[in-house]
Amino acid sequence: MKLDSKYTKAVDAMPLAEYPRPQMRRDSYLCLNGTWQYAILPEFSKLEDYQGDILVPFSPETQLSGVEKTVTPKDALYYKKEFTVERKFFQDITLLHFTAVDYYCEVSLNGQDLGSHKGGFLPFTFDVSNVLHEGKNVLTLKVLDPTDTSYIARGKQVSKPGNIWYPGQSGIWGTVWLESVSKGYVKDLHIVPDIDLEKVDITVTSDSPTVSVEVLENGRIVQEAKGKTGTPLTIPMKDAKLWAPEHPDLYDLRITAINSNGLIADTVTSYFGMRKFSVGKDKDGISRLWLNNEPYFHNGVLDQGYYPDGLLTPPTDKAMVDDIKLLKDMGFTMVRKHIKIEPLRWYYYCDKMGILVWQDMVNGGGKYNPLMIAVLPFLNVMFKDNTKGAYKLFSRADAAGREEFERETFETIDLLKNVVSLAMWVPFNEGWGQFDSDRISELIAKKDPTRTIDRTSGWHDQHTGDFVSKHIYFTPIWVPKDERCYLLSEFGGFSRPIQGHMLSDAIPFGYRMYFTKWRLQRAYKKTYEKRIIANIPRGLSACVFTQLSDVEGEINGLITYDRRVDKMDRDFVRSVNERAKY
Q1: Strands, DSSP E only, in 164-295?
Q2: What is the rounded CA–CA span in Å between residue 376 and residue 385?
C-alpha cells in the first residue's frame, strides 16, 4: 500500500535543490536532480533502450521516484541524464558530485568513463574538466546493489523487510550536482574549536599557498587572520559565545584562497560553533557526559531517517527541519542518528536549531547470528570481539567486509568532522557486524579526539572505554557502580497504531502497545519518572527513547510514518522531559 507523507505533494520537478554542502559553500552550483531515464535489466544483459523516467534523487523502489520497482542483486540499474551547461558556468576545473549511490556504480559522461565507486552512504566526486562541455551533455550510470546478499555496509536495508528491518533501495538517493572552480580552489576545511584556550584552529586544503580567514558575527567581522594553507591557522576567540542546545550560537566564516600572484583564487563561506564534548566526574565523583566543561544530561531519541514516500531520502528540505523541530518542541536535547548518514543539510539544521547528535556508523556483515544478538546478550555472556572465532560468531568472517567497514568509518569522520552538534561516534550497535571494537574505537579517538565514543552500543561490552552502554526495553533499569559513564542508549519502543497513517499491508511491530493518547502519555510519564529521572542521581548520564517516527511496520514513533499525527501532545512530553536533567 502507498502511504503519502505530509510532504509528498510539495515535491516538485527539481527536488532537494537546496545547496547541498552548507559548511563549504560557493556561488558555483548546478543541480542535476530531476527527471532522468532509467532501465532495470538482468545484470549481464545488454542495454538496448531505457524503460521510462525516474525522479532523481529518489531510488526506483520509492513512491516519489515514479518507478516503484525493486532492483534485485541479479539486476543492473541504468541511468541517463541529458542536460545543458552554459558557457558562463565554466571556470578552470569542473567537479561532478554524487551525494549517495547505493551500492556500486560505474559513471560515464559524454561516452567517456569517469570511474567507479563502491559504498552506498558516502559522497564521491569526479573531475570532469576535460569531459564536460558547453551545450548538451549526457551522463550515464550503471548500478549494482547486492542488498543483504553480501557483507556490505547496508544499515537496516533487507530484501525481506519486517519488524526492525526495512526495504532495501538502490541507485541514486542523494543530490547530484556540478560546481566549477578556479585553480587553487579551497578543497577542504578542518575546523577545531577550543574553548579552554579560547581559540579556533582552521586548516585549509588548497593548491594556493595563502589563505585568509574572517570570522563574522551578524555580518560583522570580529576576527581575521592570514597564513599558509595546509597548516592550522589559529584565531583567538576570547569571551566567545558557547554553542549548546539551549543557545545554538554559531559564527560565520569567509575563507579566501590567494594564489602565488597574490590574486583571489576562491572564496567559500562556512560556519562553526565554540563547544567542547568530554567525560568527567561530577561533584559526587560520578562519571558524566560534559558539555562546555559542565555535566550535561543527553536526553535523546533514536532516529532512523526513513520516510514512506522517499525511504532513506527526505522528500523535501522542510521534512528534515520539521523532524528536528518536533524533538525541540518536545524538549529533547539529543538525537541518535541510527545506522544512516544523512544529507549534510540535516546536520546543518541540527547545528542551527540546537540538538546534539550521536552518529552511528553504517554497519554490515553477513547474516546476523541469532545466538549473538538475541540470546547471549541477555545471559551476560561476554565475547572478546577481536578473535578469529568471534569474527565468525559476529558474522564478520569476511576480511574484505571488515576492511570496507574501517574505510567507510574514517570516510564518515572526514565527511562530518566539522559538524558542530556531533557529540558522539557510535561504531557498533548490538553486536551487528561487531569486530575489533577496542582497536577501531582507539583509531577513531586518535583521528578525532574532540568527541566521545560509545564503543559498543547495547551489548557485547568489552569493559573498556568511557561508557557502559545498555539497550533495555523489558527488564528494570538498574545503574550499577562503575568507573565508566552509564548510558541508556535505547529504551522505550512504545507503540500506538494510528489507523489511516500506517502501512496497511505491514505487520505492526512494537515492544509495548497503547491504543489511546492518554494511555501512551501515562506510560511515558511513568517510565521517565521511575526509570530515567530517578536514575540520574545514581549515575545515568544519557537516555535514547525509541523512536522519532514510525518506520514501515514498526509503529513506536513519537509521530506517524507520514509525519501527520503526533502520538502525544508536544507540551506534555516537554513537561516531562524538562525534569530529565542534572
Answers
A1: 166-167, 171-172, 176-181, 186-194, 199-206, 210-217, 220-228, 233-236, 251-258, 264-272, 277-281, 287-291, 294-295
A2: 14
Q: Does the pTM of the predicted model rise above 0.85? A: yes
Q: Assign 467 to helix, strand or coil.
A: strand
- 170 in the same domain as 107: yes
- Residue entry with cell 558555483: 28
Do residues 204 and 186 touch, judged by C-beta distance below 8 A?
Answer: yes
231 and 164 share one domain: no
Q: Is 84 within a domain?
A: yes
As a whole number of angstroms, the distance between CA 192 and CA 176 comes to: 29
Domain of 76 in residue numbering reads as 8-181
Same-domain status, 121 and 251: no
Among residues 248, 272, 296, the one where a domain terminates is 272
Residue with cell 597564513: 227
Each residue's pLDDT expressed in tens, for the chain with a length of 582 residues: 689 999 999 999 999 999 999 999 999 999 999 999 999 999 989 999 999 999 999 999 999 999 999 999 999 999 999 999 999 999 999 999 999 999 999 999 999 999 999 999 999 999 999 999 999 999 999 999 998 888 888 889 988 888 888 999 999 999 999 999 999 999 999 999 999 999 999 999 999 999 999 999 999 999 999 999 999 999 999 999 999 999 999 999 999 999 999 999 999 999 999 999 999 999 999 999 999 999 999 999 999 999 999 999 999 999 999 999 999 999 999 999 999 999 999 999 999 999 999 999 998 888 777 777 777 776 667 788 988 888 988 889 899 999 999 999 999 999 999 999 999 999 999 988 899 999 999 999 999 999 999 999 998 999 999 999 999 998 888 888 888 999 999 999 999 999 999 998 888 888 899 999 999 999 999 999 999 999 999 999 999 999 999 999 999 999 999 999 999 999 999 999 999 999
Total domains in the fold of the chain: 2
